[in-house]
Amino acid sequence: MQVMCEILHVTRSAYYRWLKQPHSPREIRNNQIAEVAKQIYEEHDDKGYRRIRDDLEGIYGITISDNRALRICRSQQIKSRIKHRANSITKGAQKPYHIAENHLNRNFRADAPNEKWLTDVTEFKYYEGPEIKKVYLSAILDLYDRRIVAYIISDRNDLPLVLQTFDAAIQKEPEAQPLFHSDRGFQYTSKKFCLRLETAGMLQSMSRVARCIDNGPMEGFWALIKREKYYRRKFTSRSSLVEMIHNYMEYYNNRRIQRKLHIMTPMEFHNHYFVAA
């Protein structure tokens, strides 16, 4: 043993300390945290180290730094899903009835619920044998709490889809008169949709041509749902795809905590406003 200590350049006392406790308290704690991190990842395999760190703090009361969370996740081969570029499905062939100014002007801050709403439509594909089919998801996002106020799923990307989404939002928030922002999609420039906004007393705002960042938070939401639950998966029925969308919307609003919302879910942050007011 003496020869081994000399070769390894350690003292006998250090060797006996190691023999009694081969792992440091920090290593033991990291292993404990790693078990919790694996549990979080097994439940939601779309999460990377940042969201796992947020869950550790927000759900389990374990506060660690991002760098420590990254090291622990790397040790467990935990990786987030790869981001993909968003695909625009805006139709430009029809002559618009109305084009609004960009009143939002990339000011994505809101001081209260229902002050600013964003909207858009995106597509999802599923397979029936060799045939590729699509469903379209229309949603309205509140900039204050980032909650999805309303959404509608349809087999057609048409005017009724966005009108139904708008009507569903008004049914939930009948007193709301937010600044209403969208891109220049044919639905949003239509006469019927503009009349809907006028009747509700809302000011319409539109992104500039080819400037997706003007509707950035909405585009960011599409990236979330697709990266976390859609990309790298193959849906072989409409029902399974629609079920995924419904489940994600409930999860996003009520269980997906966000750093921008001070480690709260959109609905928790929404309700917190009225408690603090």
From TrEMBL:
Span of the signal peptide: none
InterPro entries: HTH-like_dom, Integrase_cat-core, RNaseH-like_sf, RNaseH_sf, Transpos_IS3, Transposase_IS3/IS150/IS904
Domain Integrase catalytic: 109-274
One of the record's GO molecular function terms: nucleic acid binding
Gene3D superfamilies, alphabetized: Ribonuclease H-like superfamily/Ribonuclease H
One record GO biological process: DNA integration
Pfam families, sorted: HTH_21, rve, rve_2
Entries under PANTHER family matching the protein: TRANSPOSASE INSF FOR INSERTION SEQUENCE IS3B-RELATED, TRANSPOSASE INSO FOR INSERTION SEQUENCE ELEMENT IS911B-RELATED
Function according to Swiss-Prot or TrEMBL: Involved in the transposition of the insertion sequence.
Listed name of the protein: Transposase InsO family protein
Organism: Trichococcus patagoniensis
